[in-house]
Amino acid sequence: MDMPVDWTDHGLGLGFDVESPEGVRFRNDAASPLTEIEIEERVFSRYRAVESCTGITAWGPLTVAIPVLPPPYQGWGGVTYFDGDVMIAIRTDQLGNTIQPTMRHEFVHYVLKRGGLADEDNRNHNSPFFAACGS
Ligand SMILES: [Zn+2]
Fold first, then answer.
1. How many angstroms separate the alpha carbon of residue 125 from the centre of ligand 1?
2. Angle at CA 135, nearest 5°, toward 117 and 33?
3. pTM here?
4. Tens digit of pLDDT for each residue in 68-83?
């Protein structure tokens, strides 16, 4: 079944509250806010770590934290959209501590997209960087 797709922002909006020097733009749509320190630890520093680990440097993605991902990804912890505006949606509880790998995993998808990996290989995790840098 074809899903209706908003090719601009995937229905998530393009706004953000804070931006890292690497261009990661972050917005938290959850009820419980993250402190600046938590955003640094759980989002921005993870992006820098993935850039360093993969050796791929790219202007960072719009990353939106929400309680439940939009259809058809409701059960997922995070998703990287390859079409339209390339951006990340991550479930808020995946940012609940500093151990969860979901944010790093989605950042690996993102930098590999920016680095030129074919979308099909990216979706199928056909890169050693997922194991090396995303967990
Ligand atoms: Zn994945």
1. 6
2. 100
3. 0.92
4. 999 899 999 999 999 8
